[in-house]
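pasting HTH lysR-type domain-containing protein for the record, 301 residues
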Amino acid sequence: MNLNHLHYFRVLAKTEHYTQAANQLDITQPSLSHAIAALEKDLGCYLFEKQGRNIKLTKYGRIFYEYIDKGLQEVDLGERRLRELTSQENGWIDLAFIYTLGSHYVPHLLQSFLAQSQNRKIKFSLKQGNTTEILQALKEEKYDVAFCSYVDNQPDINFLPIAQEEVVAIVSRSHPLAVHDSVDLARLKEETFVYYDRQSGIRPLLDSLFEQVGIEPNIICEVEEDSAVIGLVAINYGIALVPNIAMLEQFPVKKLTITNPPHERYIYLATVKNRYLPPAVHTFCNFIVHHTSIKNPHTSD
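structre below
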């Protein structure tokens, strides 16, 4: 069944006049007559009947019109909604990011982006999670873009470094190490650790740091979210390695700079390769690239 024919039928049903309907549709009257005849042939019944010089809907035409009018209204709404979502100036961006970015990085980035006059009408849907969950949902088209950790063996994902985070050790203020400002991880062999779970993007980096100093950390519990890690350290349940984020200032913990081993922690803009992205999403990604000068550690010169 031809969608144009349904649209023609709706206009003709409203006017009940071939000439008026053809003028509104900007088509010839024979073209309109041919379309209605084809539609009636598909349906196996007459939709219109003559009434003097005009026409009117048949009983079956009235029944059909009720459904077609509602259906085409939904199509019109869907088209308008899609144009809004894919508009460069009025688009919608589904953005996901890891927990550490929620209190400072993402709010300030959006503030800068939306401060530009051409971007002010763009809207965001924001979701937080761990890197594993975010990348899976990104592949499932639940998000347009994501900020997360780098993950090996993800051939469908483009990773672009956009920020760096320092990793620090944290202890409760009553812990013996709280009198220090820095620490060598090699000296933490006897400590108990509150650790990130295996779904977290920072977990491979932490494992690597301990491997470099020849320590297998004594893990008392594994946690997904940063505030839970910091909260447990604050009550002296263990110590932890965490990104140096603003949230640390809200808890009674002491930050210790890690002097050994040397390390770098990156945050990445992740997108799915060869996937269509609406203009507003392209604008957002280009804005990020323009404001990023970090070299990608996972590519060669």
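Residues 163-263 form a domain with the D-Maltodextrin-Binding Protein; domain 2 fold (CATH 3.40.190.290).
The chain has nine helices and 13 strands.
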